[in-house]
Amino acid sequence: MNILITGGTGFFGSKLAAHLTGLNHKLYILTRSPEKKSNTSHLTFKGYDTTADELPRIDAVINLAGESLFGYWTKKKKETILTSRLRVTKYLVQLMKAMKEKPDVFISGSAVGFYGMSEDFIYTEATTQPGTDFLASVTRQWENEASEAEELGIRTIYARFGILLGKDSGAFPLMSLPVKLYTGGHISDGEQWLSWIHVQDAVNLITFGLEHHTLKGPVNITAPTPKRNKDFMKKAAQVYKRPNWLHLPAVFFYLTLGEMAQLLVKGQYAYPEKALEHGFTYDFPSLDQALLDLKNN
C-alpha cells in the first residue's frame, strides 16, 4: 500500500511507521520540517503544503497529528489541543477530496475520552452519547471533522485510543517511575478506570484496521482487560518487586497539574468490542503480560 500518515514521527506514529515499512508498505509522512528528514526506499517525508498532484495513488490515510495533552492546561494550551487536531484533519479531508482516486480507508485518531468519565459504566463503540468534559468535546469535534471522509465514500475508522503502554515514552514511564523509586501507590481513591493497551497491540490493531474492510466507525484501541488505578499500580509494584504504599489525594494533582489532573484522577472503562468481534488477536491481553514485557524488553 501507499500510506499517507500525519503524526508519523511521534511516540506511537514512529512505531507504527516502522511496523508498516517492515511489511513493505510505502509511507508518505507529513511533517513540519521535511527538509530535516532523510527519505528511504519505503519512507518519504512531505510538508503540510503538499497537494494531491504531488502524491501517487494513496491507498490509506492515517491521521495521528495533534498537540500533546501533557502540560498545564492554560486557555491557550486547550485551544491548541483542539485546533491542532481540527486543522490537520480538515487539511486531510480537503486533500482526499482533491484526489482523483480516493483512498480505500481513512483512520483518524481519537480517544476513549469521547465517552467522558465514569467509575460505573462500561463503554463500547455502541455508546453514541459523548461525555461533557473538555476531552470529550475535543474528540467529538475531531471525529465530526473526520466524518466528512465518509461522505467521499471512504471507509473511515475513528481510532479511540486508550492509555498506550510503551517503555520509552507516553504515559507509562511517568506512571512507573514512582514504583521504581519505591513510592508507588494509587491515585485518589484508586477507583478510576484505566483503559490501557500495550503499544505493540495498538500498532497491530491499526494495521488490522487497514486490512479488514468491514471494520469502520469508532473502534476502541484498548486491551480487553481495563483495570482500576489501584489494581494497575498494585500489579506494577508486583512486577517490579517494589512496595505499594503511597496513596496521593486528588487535590495534590489538581494543585500541581491543574485541569490536566483529570487524566490521572478520573477515567473510563472502554471495552474493545469491535476488535474482538472482528477477530483481532492481542499479544498482550492481560496487564501481567504487558508489564512483564515492558520490564524485560
TrEMBL record:
It holds the Pfam family DUF1731. InterPro entries: DUF1731, Epimerase_deHydtase, NAD(P)-bd_dom_sf, SDR39U1. Belongs to the NAD(P)-dependent epimerase/dehydratase family. SDR39U1 subfamily. Residues 249-294 form the DUF1731 domain. Residues 3-214 form the NAD-dependent epimerase/dehydratase domain. This is Epimerase family protein. Gene3D superfamilies: NAD(P)-binding Rossmann-like Domain.
